[in-house]
Amino acid sequence: MSLVYMPPSIRRFEPLHMVFSTWVDHLPFGYDLVAALRPKMLVELGTHKGLSYFTFCQSMKENEIDGLCYAIDTFEGDEHTDKYDESVFNSVNGHNRQHYHGFSYLMRMFFEDALKHFNEDSVDLLHIDGFHTYEAVSADFANWYPKVKPGGIILFHDVQARLQDFGAWKFWDEIRGQHETFTFNHGFGLGVLRKPGGDRSQDPDLLKLMFENQTEQSAAALRAFYVHASKHLENNRKIKRLGQGANKPVDAAS
């Protein structure tokens, strides 16, 4: 990479919300993408326990971005996550109200029902992470693509996950040749697609690294960077947990 790239996730990011999710491998990139894009409107399709969504929200808040975030989900589960009880929504709702009240909104509904609430060409960053069959992912893309601004970004999770009847990988392979895309292969994969158009004269470094004058060498370097960034974040969490354990008072009777 010709640019000296030192994004905010390396300098200061410490997740406020941690739950089990394969999205854990992409937290630094998610944080940095929001910081780079500075979206006026961010929409996530499929939130579950909120790991990716609250990473986006945390970046909005800590980087002082004046925008709105919407998480769309029934919060009831599906065949891939299994059904879950009300505790999932209560946990997500509680964290949202505590940390992001005023710019982040949970829309408890089906994706198709939410379409009418968004204008065309209005969404800067769209994250597609709902039901993972080929049919579901392709329908989500077709339905929501018109809502994304020219030059906007669409994320696809699990584009390397070949398990059960997951089909995000298949859909991603089909559309990669038709759009500007970048693929992260680690952590079950994350696809990044950029819609044509928009003013690109002031593109931030991250977008330049993904989409401008990309070579195999530079793409590999960026992928490796975010693999290491994820490991760095994981190691920091382990160190913090070990430190907390060492500071616990010892029971004199033991």
TrEMBL record:
Concerning Pfam families, the annotation shows: Methyltransf_24
Gene Ontology cellular component list: plasma membrane
What is the protein's given name?
Class I SAM-dependent methyltransferase
Name a GO molecular-function annotation.
Answer: methyltransferase activity
Q: Which GO terms describe its biological process?
A: DIM/DIP cell wall layer assembly; methylation
Name the PANTHER family for this protein. RHAMNOSYL O-METHYLTRANSFERASE
What species is this protein from?
Aquipseudomonas guryensis
Keywords in alphabetical order, please: Methyltransferase, Transferase
InterPro entries in the cross-refs: SAM-dependent_MTases_sf
Q: Does the keyword Ligase apply?
A: no
